[in-house]
C-alpha cells in the first residue's frame, strides 16, 4: 500500500469513528499517545522538557498537542501552529426530547450551526455523544456513547401530498425534523435508553443526568469518482483539517516549537471555554512560557495556519463565485482572503505559505467571495486577534459544505499535509 492509499485509509477510519467532536478528540488523542506524546491534565502542575511532546484536552471536545523546541529557547524558536475545529453542523437532541405522535416514537432536535437541512431527510441516522450520569458509588461520571447502527430516520413527505415540493419549500426546523425511532404504545423514556446503552458498554449507571448528543449519518466515508479522485463523507468541514494537521505533526521531523490546536464550537461563533474565542491557548502559553516578555517574544516569532475548508466552484452554480477566484478540487490548497478581515490572511503570511508550497511543487489557489455576497469566517481572525500572532487562512476546496455528506479531492489532502509538514519543520517563520 503506497503512502497516499495508507493516508486515505486512515482518514476514512478516522471520519467513521468521529461522529461527534468528543469522538474526534478521543481518536486524535489516542493516535498522539501511541506516537509518544504525553498526556497532561490542566489541573496538575506541569514539568516540561526540551523536545518534549505533550497533549491536553478541554471539555473532551478540544485538543492542543505541541512540541517544545529541542535546541533553542521557546522565545527564540516561536511556535509553528496549525489550527482547526472539531465541530460540524448537525442536529442535536433536546433535553426533554420524547415525542409520541400517532404511535411513533420521535425525538425533538435542535439545529446546530448553519446546516443544509434538506440532505438530512431519508438517511440512515444514528446517535452519538457524551452522557453524564451517577454511578453506583454516587459519583458524577461521563462517558461517550455511540449507537452505531441506524436507529432513526427523518422521512420526507410524499410528492403526492406536496405537489409543490420541487418548486421550493421552506423547512421548518421545529416541525419537519423530529426523527422517527420506532413505534410504541406509550411515551418512552429516552434517558432509560441511554442507560441501557451505557450498561452494555460496561459502565455502572444508576441514573442518567444529562447529555450532549447528535444525530449523524451512518453511511461510511468513501472514495468516489471514475479514478477515485474524490472523498465523500460527513463532517469534512472541519475534521479533514484536524486530520491533516495531526498527520503533518506526526510525520514531521522538527526540533522547533510546533503546535496543533483543534477547538470546538466554531460553527456557532467559537465563544466558549473550548472555543477559539475562549482562553485555552492563552492559558497554555502562560504555562509553557510564564515570563511575560519571553512569551511576547515567542508569539512575535510564531505563525499560525488556520485550516478550514474552502468553497470550490460548483459546475452547476459557477455564477456564485468571483470569476477569478473559483477554486477547483484537486488543484491545490486554497488561500482565503477578505479585505474586511473575515479571514486573517495578509500579503506576508500568504507569501510565506506560497514559498512553503513551492518547495514541493504544490499548486496554490485563491478564494475571494463575490463582492455582492456576505463572507463567512473562521477561527483565523479570532485567534489572531486573541493572541496577536501572524496568521493565514487556508483550506482544502470542497463542495456541498455543511451538507450531511460533503465532497473533497484526494490529491488536495495529500498536498496540504506536505505543506503543513514543511511548515512544522522550517527553522524560521
List the helices and strands and how they pair.
Blueprint: H1 3-16, H2 21-34, E1 38-39, E2 53-58, E3 62-67, H3 74-77, E4 79-85, E5 90-101, E6 104-112, E7 125-134, E8 140-146, E9 180-183, H4 190-200, E10 207-217, E11 222-224, E12 230-233, H5 236-251, E13 257-263, H6 280-288, H7 292-300, E14 303-307, E15 310-311, E16 334-336, H8 347-358, E17 365-367, H9 379-387, E18 390-395, E19 397-399, E20 406-409, H10 410-425
Helix pairs in contact: 1-5, 5-10
What's a concise summary of this model?
Helix content is 27%, strand content 27%. With 429 residues, it is an alpha/beta fold. Helix 5 crosses helix 10.
Describe this structure in words.
There is one protein chain. By secondary structure, the chain is α/β, with parallel strands linked by helices. It folds into 2 domains: 3-88 and 234-425, Aminopeptidase (3-Layer(aba) Sandwich), CATH 3.40.630; 90-217, Aminopeptidase i, Domain 2, CATH 2.30.250.10. It is 27% helix and 27% strand. It contains 10 helices and 20 strands. The protein has helices at residues 3-16, 21-34, 74-77, 190-200, 236-251, 280-288, 292-300, 347-358, 379-387, 410-425; strands at 38-39, 53-58, 62-67, 79-85, 90-101, 104-112, 125-134, 140-146, 180-183, 207-217, 222-224, 230-233, 257-263, 303-307, 310-311, 334-336, 365-367, 390-395, 397-399, 406-409. The strands form 3 sheets. It has a 9-stranded mixed beta sheet, sandwiched between helices. Helix 1 (3-16) packs across helix 5 and helix 5 packs across helix 10. It is globular and about 70 Å long.
Amino acid at each position: 500500500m503506497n503512502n497516499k492509499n495508507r493516508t486515505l485509509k486512515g482518514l476514512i477510519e478516522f471520519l467513521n469513528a468521529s461522529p461527534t467532536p468528543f469522538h474526534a478528540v478521543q481518536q486524535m488523542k489516542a493516535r498522539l499517545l501511541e506516537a509518544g506524546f504525553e498526556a497532561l491534565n490542566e489541573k496538575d502542575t506541569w514539568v516540561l522538557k526540551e523536545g518534549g511532546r505533550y497533549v491536553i484536552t478541554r471539555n473532551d471536545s478540544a485538543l492542543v498537542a505541541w512540541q517544545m523546541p529541542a535546541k533553542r529557547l521557546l522565545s527564540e524558536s516561536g511556535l509553528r501552529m496549525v489550527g482547526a475545529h472539531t465541530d460540524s453542523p448537525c442536529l442535536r437532541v433536546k433535553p426533554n426530547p420524547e415525542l409520541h405522535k400517532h404511535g411513533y416514537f420521535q425525538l425533538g432536535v435542535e439545529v446546530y450551526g448553519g446546516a443544509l437541512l434538506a440532505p438530512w431527510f431519508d438517511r440512515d441516522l444514528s446517535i452519538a455523544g457524551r452522557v453524564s450520569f451517577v454511578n453506583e458509588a454516587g459519583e458524577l461520571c461521563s462517558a461517550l456513547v455511540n449507537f452505531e447502527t441506524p436507529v432513526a430516520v427523518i422521512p420526507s413527505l410524499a410528492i403526492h401530498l406536496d405537489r409543490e415540493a420541487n418548486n421550493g419549500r421552506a423547512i421548518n426546523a421545529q416541525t419537519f425534523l423530529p426523527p422517527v425511532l420506532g413505534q410504541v404504545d406509550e411515551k418512552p423514556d429516552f434517558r432509560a435508553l441511554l442507560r441501557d446503552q451505557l450498561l452494555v458498554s460496561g459502565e455502572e449507571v444508576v441514573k442518567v443526568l444529562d447529555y450532549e448528543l447528535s444525530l449523524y449519518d451512518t453511511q461510511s466515508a468513501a472514495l468516489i469518482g471514475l479514478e477515485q479522485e474524490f472523498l465523500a463523507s460527513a463532517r469534512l468541514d472541519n475534521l479533514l483539517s484536524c486530520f491533516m494537521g495531526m498527520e503533518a505533526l506526526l510525520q514531521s521531523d522538527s526540533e522547533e516549537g510546533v503546535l496543533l490546536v483543534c477547538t470546538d464550537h466554531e460553527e456557532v461563533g467559537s465563544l466558549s471555554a473550548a472555543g477559539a474565542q475562549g482562553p485555552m491557548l492563552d492559558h497554555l502559553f502562560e504555562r509553557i512560557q510564564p515570563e511575560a516578555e519571553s512569551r511576547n517574544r515567542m508569539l512575535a516569532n510564531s505563525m499560525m495556519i488556520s485550516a478550514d475548508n474552502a468553497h470550490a466552484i460548483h459546475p452547476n452554480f459557477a455564477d456564485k463565485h468571483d470569476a477569478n477566484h473559483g477554486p477547483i478540487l484537486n488543484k491545490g490548497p486554497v488561500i482565503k482572503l477578505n479585505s474586511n478581515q473575515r479571514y486573517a490572511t495578509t500579503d506576508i503570511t500568504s507569501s510565506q505559505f506560497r514559498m512553503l508550497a513551492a518547495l514541493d511543487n504544490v499548486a496554490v489557489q485563491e478564494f475571494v467571495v463575490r463582492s455582492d455576497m456576505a463572507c463567512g469566517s473562521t477561527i483565523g481572525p479570532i485567534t489572531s486577534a486573541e493572541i496577536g500572532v501572524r496568521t493565514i487562512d487556508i483550506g482544502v476546496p470542497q463542495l456541498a459544505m455543511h451538507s450531511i455528506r460533503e465532497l473533497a479531492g484526494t490529491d488536495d489532502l495529500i498536498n496540504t499535509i506536505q505543506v503543513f509538514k514543511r511548515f512544522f519543520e522550517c527553522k524560521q517563520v
